[in-house]
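protien #1 (seq + structre)
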Amino acid sequence: MRILVLHGPNLNLLGRREPEIYGRTTLAEIEEELRRLGRELGVEIESRQSNHEGDLVDWVQEAEGEFAGILLNPAAYTHTSVALRDAIAGVGVPVVEVHLSNPAAREEFRHVSYVAPVVIGTVAGFGKESYLLGLRALVGYLKAH
């Protein structure tokens, strides 16, 4: 079983960007922990990051038939991207949305997720653990369906 992990804009700056909000863990460290957990769960992890909305949309569309599920941190596109929302809705690939911080506890403009209505679930507010919890939830969902 293959899982695609997609990281949205500015996540390449993890570890040094607003560490009081996002922590000091780097994206490379999160990806290594996901690969380790993936091995434990018996799944293969492929991770990609882009600051460009179109890349994320393309990768979601290309996932159909290639990946069993997607673990997605849309980052700022959570609150702005109808295109990403429509891509998720348009493919038959289960998606779990993850966030390091808790958007509902932050600025008002972060309270609305355009992707939440078309994903199977959201994990937010647990720092890097959001990714690991999200992966466990996605794999559990896939094994049950």
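ok now protien #2
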Amino acid sequence: MRGGASDALYDGSAMARQGIVFVSINYRLGVDGFMHFDDAAPNRGLQDQLAALSWVQEHIALFGGDPRRVTVAGVSAGAGAITHLMGLTASEALFERVILQSPSMQSHSLEDAQRIRHALAGVLGVAPTRQALAAVPLASLTRALASFMGNEVLKKQWGLRPRNYFPVRPVVDGHLIELEPLPAIEKRLRSGGAKRKVLLGSNAEEMRFYLVPDGEIDRIDEARVQTFAEDIGWSPQILAQTLEDCRAVNPQASMGDALSRIQSDFFYGHPTLALEKLLHQANCPTFLYRFEWSSPLYGGRMGAAHAMEIPFVLGNTHSRRAQEFIGAVAPTALAHDMHSRWVRFVKGDDMPDWAGAAHRLRVFQSG
């Protein structure tokens, strides 16, 4: 629904100064990129990415790059898209290494996709067809699509589940995408697919990015927490233990704090750990991280939220755009450490000092 290579948050200049040929791509988002129509190509956003990576293979040498040493990197939906590409035979020769930051790996079934298409069309008062939705002005279309995020009343009205926080996703269409990311990657590895090196991780308080800025975190009640827990298959006992754990850490924890923790783990933390375990068991070299540095924004309530790690990774902590996410003063040592490690990974350097035993976990939390 939003984002673009022109956003200063994703400026790759610091990477380029380290000798890396940095390529940013745009791909179709939202309805244009991922809403499923019977009379249109499926997963057009993913197809755009495959086209861009094919272009890199053909042309990157003209810019001083090596097509045999491509690292593909993404954050959030971009990282989730890469996990879909990792399960495709068509991507086998397109990239060598992978960086996944807070991968959003949920996908939609054809039934899910049809339901959200009808819901969006219903809110806009048009037919649920490609032609009708294409005639809606882009600003109106995007606003209507975004209105489903976090609006439980609206979602329930149109038959969407609480777990469908993000209304458009890659679709398991049976043609380009035959399986969800984890089983697709496992199948690809078992059939002789490339065992790529992967750097991946998530942030400690991902969902605060969505729940804190507009105050939604303070409007969440126990019923909403219970509804979400039931939708993801939790028993009352598991929910009660989770709420107890939240209060043990913070006696003043609200229902919003609890939902943030549950959704952070469900959408990002647990899928990341599951993917790392799968890759590790398949003997793919993996480097797992957890980002715990807390942003001072909103009186410190933003915490280690979604996207907070991006300026540290790209070396942009001093830019005005980055400071909208992380505040005016970021720990220099932490920024240097993360940026240098990502550079080393892209360049192919060994990282024997990556900490941790069971999953080679390195925690980034202070300067």
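The longest strand covers residues 197-203.
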